[in-house]
Amino acid sequence: MIRYLSILLIVIFSDASAASNIYIYEDKGNALNSEQVLEVFNQGKFKKLSDESFNPGFTQSVFWLIIRSGPENLDHKLVIGNAHINKIEFYISDRNKPQIKYLTGDHFPFKQRPINNRLFIFPLDADYQSIYLIKIDKRAESLQLNVQILNSEQLFQKSTKENLIAGILWGIIILVIVFVCFMYITVREKLYLHYLLYLLIATLWIAADKGYGYQFLWFEFPDFANRARPVFNTLLNITIIQLMQSFVSQARESAFYKPLHITKIASFILALCFLILPTVLHSFSYWFLGSLLILGALTVILISLSLAEQIVKRNRAAWFYLISIFMLMVFSVAELIIHSGKANNELYYLSNFGIQTGLVIEIIILNFGLAHRFNSYKNDKETLLIEVNKRQNELTERIITTQETERRKIADQLHDDVGSMLSLAILQISTVIDKDKSQDNSNINLEKSMKVLCSVSDTIRNMSHTLTPLAIEKYGFKNAIIDLATSINLTNKIHVEYVILGFENTENYTSNFLNDMYRVVQELLNNMMKHSEASHCLIQLIEHDDALSILIEDNGKGLKNDQLKTKSGLGLNNIKSRVEYFKGQIEFTEKAEGGTLINIEIPLNIVEEC
After folding, report:
1. What's the CA gap between 136 and 143, in Å, rounded?
2. What is residue 109's three-state secondary structure?
3. How far is CA 325 from the centre of its chain?
C-alpha cells in the first residue's frame, strides 16, 4: 500500500520526463554572439544538463542552450518551463552561420511566441545534424529553467496534468470569489469587501506569476507584463493587512495599527514606482527587489504581532487568520526557496503550484473563520436583542408602575378630598332644604343644585374607579369582576352573565397585571354596551395552571370584516396592546348566529417574568 502511495506522490509532485542531450553555457558578460557561442560549443566548453532543471537563482548572466538535432528529437517540442523570461533568441545552424528563427519573451508581444502557451514552447523541426541555439536573457532577476524535449503525446500529457491541477485550484478560488461577492451584496459588511479585494489582487498576482495574465489578459502590453508581478505583490501587502484588521476587528488604539498603516502607504508608493517608472531603471532591480522583500517581511512581522495581541485578548478569529496565513507562508516560502536557487526544483508541483495551493488552503481556513465569526455575531446579536427586550420590558414595567401610582394619587384625592367636600356640601344643602320648606323658589333652586352636586359626585367616583380599580385592593380581583358585572346589570341595558374559575389566591400576580386584566374586561364590556346592541353577554374567566383564559361573547350585531381587520374604530387598540405586552393572543370571531366571540389567552410564565 505504501509503495503504491509513493508512486502516486511521485507522479503528482514531480515531472517524470527524462533529461535530453541539452547543453548549457553561462555568458557572464553578455559578450558572445551566436557564431561565437557555436565556436565555444565546438571547443567543448558547454556543460551538459544533468537533469531537466537548472536553477541559478538571481543572476546577472546570460545563458545559452544548445541542442543537436537528430532522429531522437525530430518533430519534438522544446519546452522551457518558465513563464517569465525577458528575452529569448532561438537560432538554427545547419553548418552555416546561425540564423535567428524566433525572437520572443516578456519584452515582446505575446503573439511572437511560436506556440500559444503561457510557457515558451519551440518546435524542433530542422533537418538532421542541425544545431539549435537558444539565448536566455533574464538579467537582474531570478531565473529558473525547466527544459524538456517532448513529443506530441508527452506534451499533451504534461499539459493535461498541469491544466487539471490549475483548473482545480482556479475553480476553488473563483468559487470563493463568487461566494464572497454574494455575501457582500447580502450583508453589506466591509469585511467581505476587504476579503473580495484581497482575493482579486491575489488572483491577479498568481495569474501574473504563472503567465496566465500575459496569455489571456494583457497580451498586448508587454511593458505591463514586466511590471505586473511586483505591482500586484505590493498591492497584496495592502489588502492582506486590511483583511486582517477587519477580520479580527483591530482597534485604532492597538500598538500595531499605526505601523501597519505606514506599511500600507509604503506599499502603495512602491507599487506606483513599479507601475510608472521607466524600464531603463531595471538596473536598479536589486534595490526594488530589496524594498519589496523588506516590506513583505515587515508585513508578516506586524501581522504576526497583531494576531498575537488579539489571541491574548481571547479573540478566536485571530487563531483562524494566523493558521491560514501560516499555511500560505509555508507554501510561498517553499516555492521562493526553489526559485531563489537554494534548492533544486525537483518538486515540480511546489515549483509551479506552491503559492496557488497555499492560497487555496488559506481561503478554506478563512471561510471556516468567517463561518465561526458569523455564528458568533448571530449569537451576540440574539443575546443583545434579548437584553434589549428585557430592558424594554423593565422600562415598560416602570412606566406602568409610575402611571398606576399617579392614578392612585389622583383617585385618592378625588375620592377623599374632593368627594368628601362635595358630600359635605350636599349634606349642608339638604339640611337647609329640610329646615325651610316655605321658600318654594329657594327650595327648588337648592334641589337643582343638590342634583348637580350629586351628579358631580357620581362622576368623580366613577373617574376614581376608572383611574384605579379600588375594588381589587379592597375585595380582590374575582369580586371586582363580579361587582363590575353587577353594576352593568343594574343599568338594565344588557344582562351580563359571568363564570369565574380560580383566582382564589392572587398573591402571585402583580397589581399591574390584575389592574390591566380588569381594564381589558371593563373595556370589552363598555364596547359591547356602546356598539353591539346586544341584550345578553357571557364572561368566562378561567385560571389554568399555565395560562389565563378570558372569553366574552354576546348576541349583538357582531363586527364587520373591516372592523375585525383594523380593530381601531372600536377603541380596541389599548386592549390589544395590553394583551401583547404579556405575550398573549387575542382572537375576534363573528358568530354565525349573530354576535361576537372574543377569546384571550395569556401564558402565566410570561406574567411571572413581567
Report:
1. 9
2. coil
3. 19
Helices (H), 440-544: 440-467, 470-475, 477-489, 511-527
The pLDDT, as a whole number, for residue 258 is 94
Location of C-alpha cell 362635595: 422
Those residues whose C-beta lies under 8 Å from the C-beta of residue 590, and which sit 6 or more positions away, are 558, 559, 564, 596, 597
Which residue, chain included where needed, has cell 518533430?
75
Task: Answer yes or no: are the C-beta atoms of 204 and 262 closer than 8 Å.
Answer: no
3-class state of residue 58 by DSSP: strand
Compute the Cα dihedral for 42, 46, 49, 55 and give only its sign: negative
Q: Is the dihedral of CA 276, 279, 280, 281 positive or negative?
A: positive
Residue that has been written with the C-alpha cell 495599527 in this structure: 257
Bigger pLDDT: 561 or 422? Answer: 422
Phi, psi of 455 (to 5 degrees): -65, -40
220-224, 453-457, 533-537: segment of lowest average pLDDT: 453-457
Strand ordering across the sheet containing 22-27: 47-48, 22-27, 62-68, 131-137, 87-93, 99-104
Question: 116: how many CB neighbours lie within 10 A of its CB?
Answer: 10
Cβ count near 497 (within 10 Å): 11
Tens of pLDDT, residues 468-490: 566 677 778 888 888 888 888 88
Q: Are 70 and 127 in contact (CB under 8 A)?
A: no
Place of cell 523570461: 85
Q: Could you write out the three-class secondary structure of 497-510?
A: EEEEECCCCCCCCC
